[in-house]
Specification:
By secondary structure, the chain is mostly helical. The protein has one domain. Helices cover 83% and strands 0% of the residues. The chain has 14 helices and no strands. It has helices spanning 15-23, 26-54, 56-81, 86-136, 143-160, 162-172, 178-205, 212-253, 261-271, 278-293, 296-326, 330-368, 370-373, 380-383. The two termini are 39 Å apart.
Amino acid sequence: MTVNLGRTKRPERSDNAIAIESAVPPGVAVAGAWSWRILAVVGVAVVFGLIIIQLKEIVIPFMIAVLISALLVPIVQFLTRHRWPKALAVAVTLVGAIAIVSGLLVLVITQIRSGFPDLQTQAMAAYENFKDFLANGPLQISDSQFNDYLDQAFAAIQTDSQAVITGALSVGTTAGHFLTGALLVLFSTIFLLIDGKGIWNWIVRLFPRKARPAIDGSGHAGWVTLTTFVKVQVFVAFIDAVGIGLGAWIIGLFYGGFPLVIPIAIAVFLGSFIPVVGAVATGAVAVFVALVFLGPFPAVLVLGVVLLVQQLEGHILQPLVMGSAVKVHPLAVVFAVAAGSFIAGIPGALFAVPVVAVINVMVNFVAKGTWRTTPRPIAKDVVS
């Protein structure tokens, strides 16, 4: 009895199938093969996106917790390497982070409360002066015309910013109210810091055994990219805040002082976590304050400082620092932020770049196939 140890013989195709296949040009066959695969990928992405939308009350706090964990995990690892107990290292890191954020919030609120009355008075005076200039200047715009223009501008802003307003409202209603969302973020961060490796091992076990090396390796590559992105983004945000805040303070020295410098610098720092548009939008606040308190020429100088800092970020920090961390072309970053803000408002703009960067690294890792020959060591509980 003979045993066939060779390859299984493929079933013979009919003459009609061979004739039809030979009648299709090679280019069309390749395009068709690509088309159905692309449609399958897009379909999976759409279904995945719809699931995320339905579960946004859970997904958004969890993604915030992942970003926070990516920033805090290196600190916890540093403490544990110096023989700190894991629980103590996590507790000290979390308490320290909460204390820093709380201190910044208290500082901003205190500065705004002390400077808001003067800002309101100066804003009303500047508004009346502007109306007088329009009415008595070369434009000769009456109050009724000015009010009509304001109504049209507000209507246009309301229409164009609907996605942003929706995203802002979604932040407030992510988990019903702010407290519930904050608690979800806090508990998720604690579990990620304490047992992030165990959580990832459990996720890897959900996949078939042969796919686990690729999933595990790509996940760790994506995590390295995410942690690097968060650290670099903090550095870029710090440079933006210091540059714009320091420039505004120096300009204020020549015009009797620049109000609300500290809140503006903190706003620029927080806004810079939304790439491309965040620092510009918050820098516009500095220009507005300069226009109201100091006048048109100082406002132009502050605008120059904002543009200078943005040029420094765009031509030096982004290509040299952020480019190596994200490994995504700056044009792709711009479109990712635009698409994210259009789809999900402020949360979409915040998560667009890290999501694109992580997916890009994970896909490249799987496509290279190095995990087949030199697989990354996986914990025993993963492969069991």
